[in-house]
Amino acid sequence: MNNKVIFFDTTLRDGEQSPGASLNIVEKMEMARQLAALGVDVMEAGFPISSPGDFEAVKLIAKTIKGPIIAGLCRASEKDITACWNAVKYARKPRIHIFLATSDIHIEKKLQKTRAEVFAMAVHAVKFAKKLCDDVEFSAEDATRTDVDYLCSIVEAVIAAGATTVNIPDTVGYTVPQEYGALIGTIRTRVKGIEKAVISVHCHNDLGLGVANSLAAVAAGARQVECTINGIGERAGNASLEEVVMALKTRRNFFKLDYGINTREIYKTSRLFSSLTGIPVQPNKAIVGANAFAHEAGIHQDGVLKERRTYEIMRPEDVGVPASKLVLGKHSGRHALVSRLKDLGYRVKPADVVSLFDRFKVLADKKKVIYDDDIVALAEQGIKQPPATYCLEYLNTSSGTGVIPTATVRLMVKKVIVQEAACGDGPVDAAYKAIDKITGIKVTLADYNLRAISGGKDAQGEVNVRVERNGVTFTGRSTSTDIIDASAKAYIQALNKIAAGAR
Ligand code: KIV
Ligand code: ZN
Questions:
Q1: Is the pLDDT of residue 479 over 90?
Q2: pLDDT at 503
Q3: CB contact at 8 A, 260 and 253
Q4: Can you give the pTM of this predicted structure?
Q5: DSSP-H helix ranges across 42-99
């Protein structure tokens, strides 16, 4: 059996189904480029029929991203499959990924069909897709709650119809490692023709077992793992890519399996996704959390200083965690900045160097010491956003004990300066109310998150906001040494996305 585990990343599809994780097309492209740099084998770029925006994003990714297989998701209908193909066909290596539920509860209650009808639909869908694309994946949705005999018969039939990957999803995060490993074993022994297809697993994390279940399946012979960055995804999320790959790396003596992931790109990929969506990574998250490599207890610190392996099973540099060094200051030159960014894994296009360096100088004037995290934030701020309808020109707030917080805001709106003032519960609230008066866009602030980047009293604050409008979520983020300024700019960025009709 092949010893390579195929990493199928579904951050841009299942991950994007997570509340607040929607990305606009520019952000999706940025993420897709980074996933390619990470070395994912398959990138599920979206669900093309679900919206025109998703269709366009999948198409653009298929046209632009070289390296991974580009997959699109579709239901088992000719219309869905055709839309999927029309989006992924531009890729050098396209894949059509069809899903259809196979558990009785889904068949009877959701699809309102019989097992026989679902069986026929699955076979017809795969045959139809196969005429368009060589690479067809079939997912038996809710496989872990499906009757095993029926599951085996449907898997056998779709392989005979041309499926090259068969996915056995734990859609509701219900299974446990031993049971799931045994199910994969059963499929391997009972399904005729199974050697013609790759067995894939897709585990949700409702019981916190997504990674454990994926690893049990791999140990039992599955060779594709569907996963996401930071474990993002529907409900409690999916198995986290960084945890699965680092388990394979750290416990190579146990799994004895290969993979194509460049683990040194993990931290950067995690940071990028978190910054783009505004969804923070919990500090104790394995591999990428802020505390993942921090030792607090004196005994541990003592042990690590004497011999790192006493308490560290992985090296931070293997996942690309930048050593927090004091690197640059106001006298540093352009070359030093670009070379430090290169060390941190960021490639700066020559055309972007001037604006990046200008922003660096502005920051260096405000901040005595500039840490790696500050530089990373500068690079990420440079990610191009859709054209801005609203630009912050001026912001003045006053607040204090016994003072009613007020804000005066001036925005440039289509080349015209518009000014408003408002009072609020605090300076940020006052600024947001003044901005609302100018834009007239009615939104609900669903989440506001402020965190300090790097250390020191003059640390920069990164603000992530999530706003909702008519049930749709938009995110914005900004970084500044002044947290009110960052708060206003993050909010304006989200409003600009609404104005641009982007998500
Ligand atoms: O969880 C699930 O079953 C899915 C399928 C579409 C693969 O996301
Ligand atoms: Zn899923």
A1: no
A2: 41
A3: no
A4: 0.80
A5: 52-64, 78-88
